[in-house]
Amino acid sequence: xxxxxxTTPLVEMDGDEMTRIIWADIKTELLLPYIDLKTEYYDLGLxxxxxxxxxxxxxxxxxxxxxxxxxxxxxxxxxxxxxxxYQLKSMWKSPNGTIRAILDGTVxxxxxxxxxxxxxxxxxxAPITIARxxxxxxxxNTEYRVPCPGKAELVFTAENGKQWRETIxxxxxxxIIQGIxxxxxxxxxxxxxxxxYALDTKQDLWFSTKDTISxxxxxxxxxxxxxxxxxxxxxxxxxxxxxxFYTLIDDAVxxxxxxxxxxxxxxxNYDGDVMSDMVATAFGSLAMMTSVLVSPEGCFEYEAxxxxxxxxxxxxxxxxxxxxxxxxxLFAWTGALKKRGQLDAIxxxxxxxxTLEKASMDTIEDGCMTKDLALITEIKDPKVVSTRxxxxxxxxxxDRMLAR
Length: 404
Ligand code: NAP
Ligand code: MG
Description:
Distance between the termini: 13 Å
Oligomer: single chain
Structural class: alpha/beta
Bound molecules: NADP nicotinamide-adenine-dinucleotide phosphate, magnesium ion
Shape: globular
CATH class of the largest domain: Alpha Beta
Number of helices: 14
């Protein structure tokens, strides 16, 4: 069989632990036999990040800017325990945070819905996509502990020396403070990404913040979104028969639970972080959530929404069989390949990625699945398989479909 040719490399970012193992298996079994895979490889595994003093992460982000499409494996965000475990030179920052800070943009997360797994929320009939603003707020904060009584102030010094000053709090004892920020430019690019995604996928767009309490910070998000919508998108939304509306985050939560799904919920950075895990879990599993970062310049980074599945990895190291779900990682690859195929006008690549996605969904709907799904499926007596067996089952179906 001839393999599919690629013209532009994908930026491939390898990662850590169990997902690193899955990464290699996906490539060997499901990609390399079919595609003349062209990637520019960056090893974001923690040992190599440490060796390069994390410059590899920045280099990978720059490469995404250059080529336009990247695919990333889950990576460890080091904490004190990891510094010890890996004997690190420094407690390196979250690679996702570093990449998002360089690319800016919005993360879209949508659950993979299979007919044998019913969402925990009975009314949900269609996937809910979370659009997460991926810049600023507490992810770029400055914070410290206040050690003793004293006055905390918020000071802004303009370029020309003019100052604004507000008392945050007169501390009568120890406490905590933090400073956060966001930029009009980043909020505007979030708005454009959300409106375009809604038009692309023909889904309603909801946006929520806490503007009743945060009368300037959150309110600015609301105002910028509304202005851009009114001037540039209202007519297109009308023509497409879709709707944009703003509501308070607490109201949004209640409406989401009562909804039938099938819309995009735009959230600020932290809300999006938390709500995407809730939505993913309620639809089935974090391993069934796709995630893509869309930058204002039109770059795309595909990843899984879950972590490196450490507990499974330690079992794997002991030689025990694992049953880790590879769907989110696989869909990161298919999403990136499809995008590359569209940008480079290689329809075979798009078709291949679609077929691979279908083969993997069919595998689950045939009742063959990893343990996380077996626990929640409607199918009686599912065939529970190991990490590797699951990939081989997908390959069998893929080969059958490609032979047709
Ligand atoms: P995690 O890797 O997402 O795993 C948490 C638990 O969720 C697992 O122990 C497992 O539950 C279940 N799970 C997650 N993904 C699964 C899959 N594909 N198949 C089956 N079960 C799955 O989160 P974590 O343990 O909190 O974090 C581990 C490491 O990942 C940390 O070092 C963290 O920094 C990193 N992390 C990276 C990213 C990223 O790169 N995008 C995101 C989050 C966390 P059971 O053990 O009950 O089976
Ligand atoms: Mg999270």
